[in-house]
Write a structure and sequence with these properties.
Blueprint lengths: L2 H5 L7 E2 L10 H17 L4 H19 L7 E4 L2 H9 L9 E5 L8 H4 L7 E5 L6 H6 L6 E7 L11 H11 L2 E5 L11 H4 L3 E5 L11 E5 L1 H5 L38 H17 L1 H20 L4 E3 L12 E5 L4 H10 L2 E2 L1 E3 L2 E4 L7 H17 L1
Parallel strand pairs: 1-11, 3-4, 3-5, 5-6, 6-7
Antiparallel strand pairs: 2-8, 7-8, 9-10, 10-13, 12-13
Helix pairs in contact: 2-10, 3-10
The structure holds pyridoxal-5'-phosphate (PLP).
The site of pyridoxal-5'-phosphate has 13 residues, from helix 4.
């Protein structure tokens, strides 16, 4: 039995092409949650020290996934939006400052920055639907720019950004660099040091195959020192657990962003999911994700009744492939696909397919067959 056959128990009626939204859990994640529930109901938190080991292990897993310098650079947060808000509300803005981003961002990476308008901060959105999306970002930068924030992969088009190029530009210009990595972490190899990123965040429920409500926030020691904190509590201090001591200081590590009790249930679940990804290897996962995307792109381009909305340039491809019927209504196609048990999303005016590494070509063909059926009827 392959690891894929062992770990994925999807209903055979279903074709699951929605990892860019919320992913199904591997078997080991389900089992970790069941075991944790059993333990809680039988002995409560008797073995809390072991739970803390799991928490430490998860920081180490994220360190490895991101190639961070240290697990101390990893904070466990609620979600991507929370981490983006820590950055947006932690920096010391001056009226007239601006932030540069793209015009294709999910609201999580737009709204926190737009909300700074009251402080006189402008959000500049570059149109990145070009051959050179990074250059389009750079063109928006002027002497008032403090930070570039971008998604590693855009949620609707699936456009993948050249993060190293943006990071190098930011370093040269002394700009902060912030990456919403939710649409690539778990599908693509990541290297925050190579990207020269100051802040990177992602939630666990997409390509990382974990539950909703637990994500990662990476920061370098210098970058996090530039953020004022917006949340305080017992857990974010240097000596968490030294309850009777009235004195405290802010933790030097990224734990400073975790104000109170950790999400232990989520930690057990996400730890199990990440162990699978690390076991398979992100190089192998990335190759299979790209191969599935290539397969879909080739078939869609060969079908005159379909228009591809995702970039075709290999460097800009990701796990997301979005397309629409050239003449028929894409919402109608979306509803048709749901009726056929093809689980996908309607985004950016088209149908978004997001297969993961374990998705078979047979599953992709079943989805494409359903699309062809719809086209024949409409
Ligand atoms: C690019 C991007 N960022 C963020 C999110 C979700 O953010 P959060 O983790 O805050 O729910 C999504 C979800 O679709 C997304 O596509």
């Amino acid at each position: 039995m392959t690891i894929t056959e062992q770990e994925f128990e999807l209903d055979p009626e279903i074709v699951y092409l929605n990892h860019a939204a919320v992913a199904p859990w591997p078997k080991r994640t389900k089992e970790a949650v069941i075991q944790f529930a059993e333990e809680n109901s039988h002995v409560g938190a008797k073995n809390y020290a072991r739970w803390q080991d799991k928490e430490r292990e998860l920081r180490k897993q994220f360190k490895d996934l991101l190639n961070a310098a240290s697990p101390d650079d990893i904070a466990l947060v609620k979600n991507t939006s929370e981490a983006l808000s820590f950055v947006a509300y932690g920096l010391d803005w001056r009226a007239g400052d601006n932030v540069v981003t793209s015009s294709e961002e999910f609201p999580s990476n737009r709204i926190p920055w737009e909300s700074l308008k009251a402080q006189g901060v402008e959000l500049r959105q570059a149109d990145i639907d070009t051959e050179d999306p990074e250059q389009a970002l750079f063109q928006q930068v002027d002497k008032h720019t403090r930070l570039i924030t971008v998604s590693s992969v855009q949620y609707a088009t699936g456009r993948r950004m050249h993060l190293e190029k943006i990071g190098a530009f930011c370093r040269k210009r002394n700009l902060l660099f912030c990456v919403d990595a939710i649409q690539s972490l778990g599908a693509f190899q990541s290297d925050v040091q190579c990207w020269q990123a100051d802040f990177v965040m992602a939630d666990g429920h997409k390509w990382l195959l974990g539950p909703e409500g637990l994500g990662v926030f990476y920061s370098t020691p210098t970058a996090r020192d530039r953020l004022s904190l917006t949340q305080y509590g017992w857990h974010m201090v240097e000596k968490a657990g030294d309850y009777d001591n009235p004195g405290w200081e802010i933790a030097a590590s990224a734990r400073r962003f975790e104000c109170g009790s950790p999400n232990m249930l989520g930690i057990h679940a996400l730890g199990a999911s990440l162990s699978l990804l690390l076991e398979v290897g992100l190089d192998a996962i990335e190759a299979r994700v790209l191969d599935n995307a290539r397969y879909l792109i080739d078939k869609i381009l060969a079908e005159p009744m379909l228009t591809l909305l995702s970039p075709t340039h290999p460097a800009q491809r990701s796990g997301i492939v979005t397309f629409k019927p050239t003449q028929a209504d894409s919402q109608a196609l979306f509803h048709f696909l749901r009726q056929q048990n093809i689980i996908c999303a309607h985004r950016g005016g088209g149908i978004r397919f997001s297969p993961h590494f374990y998705t078979s070509k047979e599953a992709l063909e079943r989805a494409l067959d359903a699309v062809r059926q719809f086209l024949a009827l409409n």
